[in-house]
Amino acid sequence: MPVVQAKNVKIGGRAILYEVQGDAIIFQFGDGQYSEAERDMIRDHISNAVTFKLPDINDIIRKHILNQSIVTLPRPQAAYSDYQNKKKIGSCFHGTREALLKEIADWVSGMDETRMYVLSGLAGIGKSTVAYTVAARADELGLLGASFFFSRDEADRSNAKMFFTAIAYQLCLYSEQFSQAIGDALLTRRGSPATMKDPKEQLEVLILEPLRDIVQSRGRPILIVVDALDECDEDDGDSVLSGLSRLVQALPAFNVILTTRPQPHVNHFFGRQDGHKIFRLQDIEEKVVDGDIRLYLKHSLSLEQVRKRFSKRHWYASDEEIDFLVRASGRLFIIASTAVRLVLDKFASNPATQMQKLLQAFAQDHTPFKDLDHFYTVILRNVVPVDCGDHDIVGRYQSVVGTIIFVQHPLPVAMLAYLIDIDTEEIHAVLESLQSVILLGGDDIPRIYHKSFPDYVTDSARCKDTNLCIDARNRQTQITIRCFQIMEQRLKYNILSL
């Protein structure tokens, strides 16, 4: 064991290291500011070191404490990579959205004075896929400072309580210099408490103050991508907007790309602000969008792609069928992508039959799906037929889909079964018929594929079939009652047997 040659040497103002003789290491932790874990860490580093100097110990201790403060920053799984893992969605299909993506790339790398780029569009038009694509490409180029994908599916991603702490954490990963500055801020008297404060104070203490002097000298842009602001609570959404506006004004090296559905409060905010650019996806020429959708459909329903899922099938979509789906999509990518999943439904096992179902639904109406409502109705008929009089079928559908929509956090099927008191096999049977709108991944956690689906199915003005429409108040009441029943059955004194 190496011997440390030191006498009454003060370390970092908090510990005194005395001269070490033989195999003994003696510490006096002056005022008790070190935690037991920190003391253990110090001992481990010293006992395992081959050679070291006192400044090295200081540096090791300081880095450890700095890292611990950063790691404990509150944050949900909301980065673009988390979005991909949960939704199983990737970048824009190759060859689509080219003009838009080039415009955004030019804006990020150019000298445009506007620091915020707002991508506005209707539900299902492809905003999140564009946001993911931009984030992924910026990440590859080393330009992505942080990203945050809001979602109503998860409580901690539907508000701004951890928005700026999540951004601060990702900025620490982006740059060692940022990590040092933000870590130092967290160790101050204001720093740690700020993580539990309102978004405005989080932004000021954890990002603006630490980075103000650093980023002034940076030449490369730093991009922050924020998706689906419309899925954030409205009051919190205003906090995000004002905070991001403040960020790009105070730190000119930062650019922000933001996607949202058209919303009055967002329009009102930007109507009072300068320094932003708004692009409305629905303004792209129809022939350009149709061309992109046709390119995507021809690839996705080609013989090569079909045989990846059904190795013995020789079917592929004809040009006439592709034209039908392009018209039926009505410029909404969500209809095109959902149609592909419906046709290639592995449980249905026959893509030709699935395509015919879509063609028949189209023929009966004699018009394309002008919006998502008719399209979602066609899909839901896989579970609840027209004029279904079987109360068990309707009740099972209402319980399974309604609970998936209204629980605060996505639940595994086993836990979902326990909550709604329905067998897991019955739940899987419902989900198998709805896999084009509800994703069931390897973790066995069902997730809504796109927010337009719950919007439709919970709106009685749009979803007019009472068997299909899910009443929000009734379903939330049923969930609450079931929770009380479970607590009454399971809660007991000293439940952990301590």
Automatic annotation (TrEMBL):
PROSITE patterns, A to Z: NACHT
InterPro entries named among the record's database cross-references: NACHT_NTPase (IPR007111), NPHP3-like_N (IPR056884), P-loop_NTPase (IPR027417)
Keyword Repeat found: yes
Keywords: Repeat
Domain NACHT: 115-262
Originating species: Amanita muscaria (strain Koide BX008)
SUPFAM superfamilies given in the database record: P-loop containing nucleoside triphosphate hydrolases
Domain of life per record: Eukaryota
Protein name: NACHT domain-containing protein
Repeat found in the keyword field: yes
